[in-house]
UniProtKB/TrEMBL annotation:
The keyword Repeat applies. Pfam families: LRR_6. GO terms for cellular component: cytosol; nucleus; perinuclear region of cytoplasm. It comes from Guillardia theta (strain CCMP2712) (Cryptophyte). SMART domains: LRR_RI (SM00368). The lineage of its organism: Eukaryota, Cryptophyceae, Pyrenomonadales, Geminigeraceae, Guillardia. This is Uncharacterized protein. Gene3D superfamilies: Ribonuclease Inhibitor (3.80.10.10). It comes from the Eukaryota. InterPro entries: Leu-rich_rpt (IPR001611), LRR_dom_sf (IPR032675), RanGap (IPR027038). One of its GO terms (biological process) is nucleocytoplasmic transport. Keywords: GTPase activation, Leucine-rich repeat, Repeat. GO terms for molecular function: GTPase activator activity; small GTPase binding.
Length: 450
């Protein structure tokens, strides 16, 4: 643990190595503003520093100001991390950091700060001109902040930007519209775009769909939990058809329903060969009917490694289509989430016939499916064959006391198993309670653990 009073001694230690020091990590130490003031007096001498991490150091507004000033001298700086430093919104007005235009920086991370840190540090400087990776996730940027941010992107013409993360910023539809304008100017070479949990709605998605047409190099697109409905899903689908290199796509937890889901699956067809991760969880579509076009798409995704369909009401008919398609991707699938798909015992029997072929499966989620003791008996033999499984979700499955011995036997024999979710079941109601699981309790997440 390093405190403010220790910084002086620390800086004296690295003075002799000032020309050779390339990485300095002081994260998660209660240095505070005073300690960072002391640090700032030595930072300008570290001419070859490439990586500076002062995350979670209680920097605040004052500490951040101290650190930013000497960064103008660090011409080789590539990564700066200022996460979790409680920087208030007013900082963007108070900081004068224009000398930072000399910094050549391919990567900056400013997560869990208030919006000002990202905007003041990046927009008011020439740093934009060469940046390629920018993480401003978990800042309450909102629409107004997104407007300023987008203006900065356009004004500095950041055509080098390849990786942009703005997740969990509450930018809403207005903010998404501003961002869309910026992406139409500088998004052509972008590889990764993360916009999860921003309440952009269908209005914002329709605006963003326009620049997506021309972002043909995009590999990663994250749009989880944004309140996007059918119309937004359809607009997105029309843009996805222009993307040929997607490896990861998430539209989970958006009520895009039938037409939106269908449009997106059709739109993904030019990325079927490259797609490795797909999240269409809790999209509120008609499982039995939509499972036909979805399974047809899955059957062509030969590189698929991760599939999340949690909360999609497939029931037995839809599950039959999906599992049939998954047999084609059996050699690649590593993560499969079918939690809450109305599987029941019959679905467990159906899935067991497929699971036995997934030799590399590590994460399997089948919680909230009311499997019951009979369903567990159906699926456990297949799970024994999946020797690589490390995570198993069996929570809220109506499992009773008769299942506890079967579970104990399976857990003890599974060499790679690290965690099993069993909360929300009734396995402890037998005469022995949880005692049969005692030897493997460290791997089990139970009701008392959540």
């Amino acid at each position: 643990m390093i405190w403010a009073n220790d910084i002086g001694c620390l800086t004296n230690l690295f003075k002799p190595a000032s020309d050779s020091l390339v990485k300095l990590v002081l994260s998660s130490n209660p240095i505070g503003a005073d300690g960072l003031k002391t640090l700032s007096q030595s930072l300008s001498n570290l001419r070859n520093l490439e990586d500076l991490d002062i995350s979670s150091t209680y920097a605040g507004e004052r500490g951040t100001t101290y650190v930013l000033e000497p960064l103008a001298f660090l011409e080789n700086l590539k990564t700066l991390k200022l996460k979790d430093n409680t920087i208030p919104g007013e900082t963007s007005v108070m900081l004068d950091i224009s000398p930072l235009d000399r910094i050549v920086s391919p990567g900056v991370a400013c997560g869990v700060n208030w919006v000002s840190c990202g905007l003041a540090f990046v927009i008011e400087t020439g740093l934009w001109r060469s940046i390629s990776t920018l993480d401003l996730g978990q800042n309450p940027m909102c629409a107004q902040g997104m407007h300023i941010f987008s203006k900065g992107l356009i004004a500095c013409n950041i055509v080098t930007l390849t990786d942009l993360s703005l997740s969990n910023n509450k930018i809403n539809a207005d903010g998404a519209t501003h961002l869309a304008e910026a992406l139409s100017r500088v998004g052509h070479g972008m590889l990764r775009l993360s916009l999860a949990k921003n309440m952009i709605s269908s209005e914002g998605m329709i605006a963003l769909a326009k620049p997506l047409h021309n972002m043909s190099k995009l590999e990663h697109l994250l749009l989880t939990e944004n309140g996007i409905t059918e119309t937004g899903g359809m607009a997105l689908g029309n843009s996805l058809i222009h993307l040929f290199n997607l490896t990861s796509f998430s539209i989970g937890r958006n009520p895009i329903k039938n037409e939106g889901t269908t449009s997106i699956i059709i739109g993904l067809q030019n990325s079927f060969d490259s797609l490795e991760a797909l999240d269409v969880s809790i999209c509120h579509f008609d499982g039995p009917n939509l499972s036909v076009p979805i399974s047809a798409g899955l059957a062509r995704m030969k590189s698929l490694k991760e599939l999340n369909m949690e909360g999609d009401a497939l029931n037995l008919q839809g599950l039959s289509h999906i599992t049939s398609a998954l047999t084609i991707t059996k050699f690649n699938l590593v993560t499969l989430n079918l939690g809450g798909v109305q599987m029941y015992a019959d679905g467990a029997k159906l899935l067991s016939g497929v699971l036995i072929q997934f030799r590399y499966l590590k994460d399997l989620g089948i919680g909230y499916n009311k499997l019951g003791d009979h369903g567990l008996k159906m699926i456990l033999p297949a799970l024994h064959e999946c020797a690589s499984i490390s995570y198993l979700g069996l929570q809220h499955n109506n499992l009773g006391p008769t299942s506890i011995f079967l579970l104990a036997d399976f857990i003890l024999k599974s060499a790679n198993l690290v965690q099993v979710l069993l909360y929300g079941n009734n396995i402890h109601y037998g005469p022995n309670g949880l005692t049969p699981l005692a030897s493997c309790r460290h791997k089990v997440t139970w009701d008392t653990d959540v």
